[in-house]
Amino acid sequence: MTGATGGIGRIAAEHLLTEPDLHLVVLARDPATVDPRATAIPADLRSPASIRAAAERITTLLDRGDLPPLRGFAGNAGIQYTNATTTGPDGFEATFTVNVLANHLLLRGLERHFAAPARIVLTGSDTHFGDLSHNLGLVPAPVWRDPRTLARPAAFRRPASTAAGRTAYSTSKLAVQYLVHEWARRLPAGVGIVSYNPGFVPGTGLARHAGAVERLVARRVLPALTRTPFATDLPTAGARLAAVLLGRVTAPTGGYIDRDRAADSSPESYDERRERELFAALEDFVA
Fold this sequence. Notes:
By secondary structure, the chain is α/β, with parallel strands linked by helices. It has helices spanning 7-16, 48-64, 94-110, 132-135, 147-150, 162-186, 212-220, 234-245, 272-286, and strands at 25-28, 39-42, 70-75, 114-123, 191-197, 256-258, 261-263. The chain has a single domain (7-18, 70-286), classed as Rossmann fold, CATH 3.40.50.720. The radius of gyration is 18 Å and the shape is globular.
């Protein structure tokens, strides 16, 4: 699991750790932040080299029998910047790297080790719809580009602006949908993949790179929305993620789980040409 040391991921991990016969492996930049009941693997999700090393460490433990058979993967980590110019060690734009490339690289490294029945869950976002009813006007709509452009800094107009950073986020979440659809076509029988949309969840730390005023609003004002249908509180979102991972909320492979039920993702997210192009680009990046 990635993204298990804070936000909805931490709550989901707490639920998973109460399950008998379930062994949780957590990838984290700082292993000291990982619950001691889990196996911690160091990984910086902004760095393809670090991601590859983490996947190799996990497969080594699996091959030695130090871990039980691999029956699940949760790509829950996500980041949002106040610009579209932040890069990681390899020069890839950081939002794209953490939200999209890291998931693909980990699945590539682990795919031969999944033991059916297995379940893969990537955390998406309803910001990929790009309309007011889904993003409350807080995040711009996704702007699709060639994946090789999206993977590099300054893919959007006014790249140093907050709007560009948020566009990078919503676009990365559209890419997650494409990634789920294409992996669903390629995984073997018995290994399913779905995306999970927790909805708008104040307090996850996603706004930690925002300015002081925006952070204050995110911390003090937006949580009030959890008393309305427009937002989900942290405990509920985390519990729902755990339920999806455990197969208690299901959708067909390639499907989209919106909070607590299977649903359709955005009309734009069903584009096989884009899905193939994204997959091919990601393969080139990790080659």
